Amino acid sequence: MSARLRGTLLGLAALAGVAAAWELYKLLGPEEGWSLGELRLAPRTTDLAMPHVWEMVARLGDPLTAAPGAPVLAVAVLQAGAFSLGIALLSWVLGVAVGLAYAVAMARFRIVEQAVLPLVVLSQTVPLIALAPLVRGWGSTLELGSFEWQGWMSVVVIASYLAFFPVAVGTLRGLQSPDAIHRDLMVAYGAGWWTTLVRLRLPASVPYLLPALRLAAANVVVGTVVAEVSTGLPGGVGRMILEFASFASSDPAKPWAPLFGAVLLGLVVAGLVGLLGVPLGRYRRAEAVA
After folding, report:
1. I need a labelling partner for 263 at 20 to 30 A (CA). Which of 112, 123, 176, 186 fits?
2. Burial letters for 38-58: b for 16+ Cβ neighbours within 10 Å, e otherwise?
3. Closest of 183, 203, 180 to residue 191, by C-alpha
4. Other C-beta atoms within 10 Å of 229: how many?
5. What's the CATH superfamily of 64-284?
6. 285 confidence band (pLDDT: 50, 70, 90)
């Protein structure tokens, strides 16, 4: 059995395990859940709070609306997911580019690392929901000739904001990972800093960079969905989650459809980023967590 097939079977088994655990808790758990004072430790098991798995799956085949010719819910979710996928990939590319630029600058100049690294860490303490309206407002005030700021651009900026941090930190650690004897050897050969970067530091950073890229992919999906909700951008999974929340009391299985789309979006982005490890296989050796 190939490794790819084994991974697919394990993924399907994990998915089946989650569905089985959901139904088992719904069967055995108390209807009102478990609470400790005001703190709820486990969710309710009523049909309103926890619809059956087969009901959630069945809703995917229902029409999106009662209008004639309306697409089925599954198709609408896939269309929204494709819209969010484009934004997520663009955000990932932008976040990775900014993170790599920061990492190289910090590795090149010690004073830049001392000045910028604390700010990079501090930047991640700003709540995303608080940042989204500010980015949208700043973008709407930009005036560059005929250029007009679009709503999806705000989402790209916000999502890439979450993606650049793990790349910057992970790449910096990777660029600083070569042993002193290897750096001294490059000096003995008369190699300049940029030659050392390309020949030594960048290959050595791959085991640190690949996990950072995967973490950035996870962050960018979360950032895209949250930013779509916060900015009100139509067409994506985030806006669909917000719109379908109104069905929570009348049709509790329906709001889960866009959530499935968000999960699928995360899996697709993670799979695409995972493909980057194939051409870099000879540099991987052992991956390290930044």
Report:
1. 123
2. eeeeeebbeeeebbebeebee
3. 183
4. 20
5. MetI-like (1.10.3720.10)
6. low
In this structure, what token pair is assigned to residue 66?
């009662």
- pLDDT tens profile 11-56: 788 888 888 998 888 888 888 877 777 777 778 888 888 888 888 8
Nearest-angstrom CA–CA distance, 169 and 253: 41
How large is the angle between the packed helices 202-231 and 73-108, nearest 10 degrees? 130
- Mean pLDDT, the chain, rounded, equals 83
Q: Using alpha carbons, list the distances in angstroms from residue 128 to 75, 155, 171, 220.
A: 29, 11, 24, 12
The length of the chain, given as a count of residues: 290
Residues 271, 13: Cα–Cα separation, whole Å: 18
State which amino acid sits at residue 112.
V
Instruction: Give residue limits of the domains in the chain.
Output: 1-50, 64-284
